[in-house]
């Protein structure tokens, strides 16, 4: 796992926040919003609280449960609880500090376990998978633009140039409760997963991101750097964040799971 975040070429500060921990198979990325730098506060709380609650739950889970079956119901419950806690903390902070009123954040989290990936997301930060030559978006944006596409009012090409492309319909911390979407995917050795903020996906088309990852698939730190550099070269109109995860071997329960993620995803940097 490798991750990078950058302010971009236009903004004067970075409201994105990233977290990744290979030992836990955990990835978290948040893109904050709100005035007076409150977006930076919201995204920071989101990644910190989600990570802390996930880590506490994983460490408290009895060993016989960790290695029994697919673990998917427990994994999903862990992710939902963690994001609920982050939502409550951001919302309460905004209530207590007027300068943070209205702040919120997108959030996408991935948990790799037992040859599966559970993805929980709110907003328009994205997850992609490169499998062989196929590059596929795994998450679906919670945005006004996506609703227009789903209704057949806009094509994908028209959507790329729409003026309201960053209006999200869901966010963490803007209300007392949050609606988190969960998705589950089978993972295969050789897969590469990209988690990113819209500062990357708005600047680079899917084909470009796919080509850059393929070109540097054996050097993920460089691939991550190149993605951000190319997004900045295209204008860098927003903060840019990316996390890349390469699955290097089978990690099913049959070969021993949970505390042996290190080495299966490669080293972090």
What's this model, at a glance?
With 269 residues, the protein is α+β, with helices and mostly antiparallel strands. The protein has helices at residues 38-60, 63-66, 72-96, 144-150, 156-160, 198-201, 206-215, 220-233; strands spanning 2-6, 16-21, 26-33, 104-113, 116-122, 126-131, 134-137, 181-186, 192-196, 240-246.
Q: Compute the CA-based radius of gyration.
A: 18 Å
Report the CATH C-level class: Alpha Beta
The helix fraction, in percent, is 25-40%
Number of helices: 8
CATH-derived topology: Phosphatase 2c, domain 1
Strand content: 15-25%
Widest sheet: strand order?
1-10-9-6-7
First-last Cα distance: 7 Å
The strand count comes to: 10
Give the key terms.
single chain; 269 residues; alpha+beta; five-stranded antiparallel sheet; 24% strand
Could you outline the blueprint of secondary structure elements for this entry?
Blueprint: E1 2-6, E2 16-21, E3 26-33, H1 38-60, H2 63-66, H3 72-96, E4 104-113, E5 116-122, E6 126-131, E7 134-137, H4 144-150, H5 156-160, E8 181-186, E9 192-196, H6 198-201, H7 206-215, H8 220-233, E10 240-246
Antiparallel strand pairs: 1-10, 2-3, 3-4, 4-5, 5-8, 6-7, 6-9, 9-10
Kindly describe this structure.
It contains eight helices and ten strands. The protein is α+β, with helices and mostly antiparallel strands. It has one domain: Phosphatase 2c, domain 1. The strands form two sheets. The chain has a five-stranded antiparallel beta sheet with strand order 1-10-9-6-7. Strands 2-3-4-5-8 form a five-stranded antiparallel beta sheet, with helices on one face. The protein is globular. The N and C termini lie close together (7 Å).
């Amino acid at each position: 796992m490798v991750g990078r975040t950058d302010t971009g070429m236009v903004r004067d500060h970075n409201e994105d926040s990233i977290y990744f921990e290979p030992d836990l198979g955990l990835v978290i990325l948040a893109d904050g919003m709100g005035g007076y730098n409150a977006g930076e506060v919201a995204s920071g709380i989101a990644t910190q609280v989600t990570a802390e609650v996930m880590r506490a739950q994983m460490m408290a889970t009895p060993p016989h449960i960790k290695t029994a079956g697919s673990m998917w119901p427990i994994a999903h419950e862990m992710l939902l609880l963690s994001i609920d806690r982050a939502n409550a903390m951001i919302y309460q902070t905004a209530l207590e500090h007027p300068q943070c009123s209205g702040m919120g954040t997108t959030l996408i989290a991935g948990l790799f376990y037992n040859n599966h990936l559970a993805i929980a997301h709110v907003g328009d930060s994205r997850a992609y998978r490169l499998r062989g030559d196929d590059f596929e978006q795994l998450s679906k944006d919670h945005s006004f633009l996506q609703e227009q596409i789903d209704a057949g009012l806009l094509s994908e090409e028209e959507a790329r140039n729409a003026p309201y492309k960053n209006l999200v319909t869901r966010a963490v911390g803007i209300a007392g409760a949050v609606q988190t979407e969960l998705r589950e995917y089978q993972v295969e050795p050789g897969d590469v997963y990209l988690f990113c903020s819209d500062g990357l996906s708005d600047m680079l088309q899917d084909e470009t991101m796919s080509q850059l990852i393929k070109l540097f698939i054996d050097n993920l730190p460089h691939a991550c750097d190149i993605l951000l550099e190319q997004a900045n070269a295209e204008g860098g109109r927003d903060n840019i964040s990316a996390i890349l995860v390469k699955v290097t071997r089978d990690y099913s329960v049959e070969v021993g799971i949970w505390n042996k993620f290190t080495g299966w995803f490669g080293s972090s940097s």
